[in-house]
Amino acid sequence: MKFTKNNFFRSLKKAKHALSGFFVHLNFFSKNKKSADLNHLDLNRELVYSLSTKKLPNAEQLKHLGRFLTTKERKIVRICALILILNFVYLGFVFFNKHIVSTPLAGGSYIEGLVGAPKYINPLYSSNRDVDADISRLIFSSLFKYDEKGVLVGDLVESWQRSDDGREYTLVLKNNAVWHNGEKLNADDIIFTVQAIKNPKFRSPLHSAFSGLEVEKMNDYAVKFKLSQPYAPFLGLLTFGILPKNIWGAVIPESATLAELNLKPIGSGPYKFKSLVKNKNGEIKEYTLEVNEAYYGAKPFIKEVSFRFYSDAESIVKALNDNSVDGVSYLPFSARKDLLAKSSLSFHYLNQPQLEAIFFNQKNNEFLTNKNILQALNIAIDRSYLIKGIFNGQAQESRGPILENNSAFNADLKKTVYDYAQAEKIIADEGFIKVNVSDDDLKDPSKEIEGITVSDFQEKASDAGVDPVGIWLVKKATKKVPENKFLVISLTYPDSADNALIAGKIQEYWQAIGVKTSLNPLPSSQIASEIAIEKNFEALLFGENVGADPDVYAFWHSSQISEGLNIASYANTNADKLLEAARVSTDENDRLEKYRSFQQLVVEDQGAIFLFSPNYLYLQVKKLHGFSGTSIIEPSDRFASISNWYLRVRHSFVW
Length: 655
Description:
By secondary structure, this protein is of the alpha+beta class. Helices cover 31% and strands 22% of the residues. It folds into 4 domains: 64 residues, no CATH class; 35 residues; 279 residues, 3-Layer(aba) Sandwich (D-Maltodextrin-Binding Protein, domain 2), CATH 3.40.190; 207 residues, Roll (Dipeptide-binding Protein, domain 3). The chain is built from 17 helices and 26 strands. It has a 7-stranded mixed beta sheet with strand order 9-10-11-2-12-25-13, sandwiched between helices. A 6-stranded mixed beta sheet has the order 15-24-14-23-21-22, with helices on both faces. A hairpin with a 2-residue loop joins strand 7 and strand 8. Helix 16 packs antiparallel against helix 17.
C-alpha cells in the first residue's frame, strides 16, 4: 500500500476502532492486567510497524514529526540537534588544526610610515637621523648588529678574538657576502669605511669615536683593530654600515654629502634600493626597497618594503586609519587615542635604553646647589602616576644613571617614594615660608603680605614667566641677605605631546609644595644643539639613549661637561675614577662592581632626578606575521628580525 496522508489517517481511524474493542475485552481479565498491558504494547508496536515497511522514518514522515511532539519535546530535540552540530564543528576544527600546517610564503609588500624624510642613507652620516638610520639598516651590512632581544651578535663577522691586554681585536669575515651590484665584499671595504669615518674631510659624526684607532688587513677576509688603550665596550662601536670601496673610493670626501649614492645607495644588506618618488617641490614622499636575492643571511619573505613620509604624528595616524600604511615606526602615547580599529593592529612594546630625567644647571639657579631642595623636588614627583597615567604602564621606573635591565644595575638603590608632606617639611626646614597671593591682593600692589609687598611678587612673576596668584615659597631678607628670595624654577623640555604632558604634571607637583614653575618648550633640534651643550637652562627634562653597555662615561665624567654629553655638569673625583677604570677593565665582574659603586655616588649627590624608561611602541597590522622583537638599542633595531616577517601563508595537509 502506498503511504499517503489520507491512507495514514484512515489507518489510524481503523486502529482506533480495533483498540476500543480490545479494551472492552480487557475488562474480563482484571486478574491478568500485567499480562494484558504487555499485549497492549505489542499490539501498538505491530500497528505502527504495519503503517510502514521500514522501521526508520523517511524524510516525508519526519516532516510531520512536529505535529506529534509537545512543546517541551520539540525544545529537547532542538537542543540535542544543536549539541550534535557543535560537536561535529569542534571535532572538525580539532582535526584540521592537527593536520593543517601553515608555513610562510615569499611575496607581498610592506609599507611603513615615518615622520620626516631621508637625506643621507649613508652609514657615515645616518646615525644622526632616525629616518636615514632606518633605511640604512636594511640596505647596509655591519660587522656587528643587535638582534631582536637587544644582544650584540656578529653580522659580517664570522668569529673574533681579543688580545690578553684588550688592545687588539682580530675579526674573521664571512666570505659569501656580495654587494648589490654583484661584487664580493672583503677586508678592503672594511678598512676603507673605517678610514672614511676617521677622515675629517668626510665630516662623519662617528669621527670622534674612532680617533686613536688603527685597522689593518690580515687577509682578504680578516682585519685587525688596534686600540691605543683597552676599551671594554669596543665591539659595540662596530655596528656602523660598511661602504663598498670600489664605488665610494672615487668620491671626493669634501663632496661626499652631495653624491647621488646618498639616496640611491649600494650595500650588502637584506634589501636594496628600487625606487623613490618625489613631489613637485623635490621632497621625497615614498622610498621603495626590494629583496636582495643574493643576501648571505636568511633571505626575507617580504619582497618589497616601502617607506612613506609624513610631517607629524597626526598625519601618520590618519594614514594608518585609512589603511595607507601597514606599520608606524613610533607613535607618541598621546596620539594613540586617535587610532581606529585597534583590534586590527599589533602593539609591540619594546624595551629601549632611554633614560628620562630632569637635569639641573646649578650655575643658573642658586637654590639648585642645595641637595635638600633637590631632594624635596625629587620626592614631590609621583612617578607611578607618570608611568600609569601618561604611559599606560608602558615604562619602567629609573633609580639611577644605569637602567634596571642592564647587567651593571645596582639593585641596592632604593626607589624614590612620593612624599608630598616630607617635601614640604624639607623646604620649610631650609627657612622658606609659604605666602598665598590672591587675585584680590593684586588690586593693591602696595599691600604687604608677610612683610612683602604685592608689587614684589608681581615683578618676580613677570621676570620668571609665572602666575603671581597662588602659593609662593619665600626666604625673607635678613641682615646678611638684604633681599627676599623667591624659590622659582624654569623647566625646559623638547616640544612634543608626550613631553608636554610630563612637564605639565611636574609643574603641578612642584607648585603644590609652593615651588613656582615656568615651562619652556623648545624644538628638539634646538635642545640637542644649543640648550643641552651650552647649559642654557635651569632644569631640563630630557631623554638620553644610554646604550646597551653600562659605560656611561660620556654622560657623567667631568671631562664631558664643556663639550660632551654631561648635561648636569656632574663632577665627582671618585665617580671619574670609577668610570675610567671600568671602561678599560677586561674583567667583566670587576667592571660591574665599579659601575654599581658609581651609581651609588650619583644618587647620593642628587646628580639628577631620574624618572623612568619608556617603552618604544612599534605598530603593525595583524596581517603581518613573524615579528619577534622584545628590545631595541636604536629605533632601527626593530628590523633585526625582518627576515622572519611574512605576509603570505601556505596551508598544507599532513597526516
